[in-house]
């Protein structure tokens, strides 16, 4: 049985048994917050448990490294939509220790791409068009610096409401222990 077949078989039974009823909630976050965190598998359930969250409490945006790579990209858009359209009143940027994007070897990733059939001429074309593939694949050197950078990107965005707190945290992916880097309540501008 393939992965997709097993997922679909499980889902059929899940729906038939009405198991979804245990997860019923609204589209707006109960705790009025949106979290940007990493897609690391270790955080899937651990981060919610370590923060005391249940289904429906927060909006969660995940990507590789919990990183905002462009001020007008999908990640920033998701954070702004969370605030302006979905009722969130706070943002939490949460990186984690031992992150795969910390000091990722972009050359090794590019080499794997070429081994899997991506042509060098494709990469050269992208580079020539102004899309630096190596920079696009690269991560960061320090998780704390990455969290500070992301908090600053949100807080200094021209479309961001400066009365919304933006917190910066780092979670330990083995224990769930949190380290506070930025207390967003200290930076908000009162209206």
The CATH superfamily label of the largest domain reads: Carbonic anhydrase
What's the N-to-C terminus distance? 58 Å
Number of separate domains: 2
Q: What is Rg?
A: 19 Å
Number of helices: 7
Q: Please give the number of β-strands.
A: 5
Largest sheet: 5 strands, mixed
User: Which term fits the overall shape?
Assistant: globular
Strand line-up in the sheet with most strands: 2-1-3-4-5
Q: What's the mean pLDDT score?
A: 95
Class by helix and strand content? alpha/beta
According to CATH, the fold-level topology of the largest domain is Beta-carbonic Anhydrase, Chain A
Strand content: 15-25%
- Please state the second-level CATH architecture of the largest domain: 3-Layer(aba) Sandwich
List the helices and strands in order. HEHEHEHHHHEE
Query: Which regions contain 5 or more consecutive residues with pLDDT less than 50?
Result: none
CATH class category label of the largest domain: Alpha Beta
Share of residues in helices: 25-40%
